[in-house]
Write a structure and sequence with these properties.
single chain, mainly alpha, 4 helices, 56% helix
Length: 88
């Protein structure tokens, strides 16, 4: 499958479906961020060789997880909980 074919399937609706249901308070955020991501992601697929369906599936799953179902582009935690930990 070519990268062009892969990029053509990336729509805000697809990203929302991948992210799944969110609480009412996050629905506005989930409506906005997938639109931005659907616009910005396609050129990056070529650049980082996300050129097969499995790679795209892994990327989108990780993005959905890290962005709280595409509701945020910012980290919720400060990272302070990890400071000074010797087990990491």
């Amino acid at each position: 499958m070519s990268t062009n074919t892969l990029t053509s399937i990336i729509t805000p609706q697809l990203l929302i479906a991948i992210g799944g249901a969110v609480p009412t308070g996050k629905r506005i955020a989930q409506a906005i961020r997938p639109t931005t991501l659907a616009e910005k992601l396609p050129p990056l697929l070529d650049r980082f060789e996300i050129n097969r369906p499995l790679r795209l599936a892994h990327l989108l799953a990780q993005l959905a997880h890290e962005s709280d179902a595409f509701c945020t582009f910012e980290e919720y935690a400060s990272g302070a909980a990890y400071e000074g930990r010797i087990d990491l």
